[in-house]
Amino acid sequence: MWPGLGRRSTHWPLQLASIGAIRFARRSSNFQETVRFYRDLVGLPLYETFGESYGSNGAVFGLPSWNLTFEIVEAVDDVEVDRHAQLCLYFPDKEAQQAAIARLQAAGQEPVEQHPYWEATGAVTYRDPDGREVVFAPFVYGVNEPRDSSASGNHEFPG
Fold first, then answer.
1. Ordered mean pLDDT values, 10 residues apiece, the chain (159 residues)
2. What is the C-alpha separation between 38 and 142, in angstroms, rounded?
3. Which of 24, 91, 108, 151 is the most core-located residue (most Cβ within 10 A)?
């Protein structure tokens, strides 16, 4: 964190200031199971589904606000998954994190071995049906990170 400020700040470029919404999208080889995972176990609100729309089937999930969404599109072929293709959900504290993973635990889902950073900071990681990781962190990046979260390697925070 910046000394004395309590949180990091970024400056949104003027040419992007008029953006009205942001959507993150990914393809899924296990579409139906993946949609159920994010809807029923992670608990993301399902805003819309679409079928054969311009040749694609998909589902749009809401993130904390209406103008930030997460889309899953059914893949025709198998999709290769990278270990860092993560959805990271940051919670204000351990109590909120535990409440968020309660559905996964009740369904018998087991956390997976996770990146050393997440292990060191108290996060819990699960895998979706495609093998992508969903990280539940007990802190908010840039706000109340654990003191030792940047203890490894070099970290620069441009102004």
1. 48 85 94 97 96 94 90 94 90 97 97 94 96 95 76 66
2. 25
3. 91
| Distance spanning both ends of the chain, measured CA to CA | 12
pLDDT digits (tens, 9 = 90+) for 104-148: 999 999 999 999 999 999 999 999 999 999 999 999 987 887 877
The conformation of residue 23, written as its DSSP 8-state character, comes to E
Pairing of the two strands 124-127 and 22-28:
unpaired
> Rounded to an integer, what distance in angstroms lies between the CA atom of residue 157 and that of residue 159?
6
Question: Measured between alpha carbons, how far is 157 from 107 in angstroms, rounded to an integer?
Answer: 40
Smallest CA-to-CA distance from 28 within 127, 131, 133, 130 is with 130
Tell me the whole-structure pTM to 2 decimals: 0.86
Q: Are 123 and 136 in contact (CB under 8 A)?
A: yes
- Cβ count within 10 A of residue 142: 15
CA-atom Rg of the chain in angstroms:
17
d(CA 40, CA 32): 12
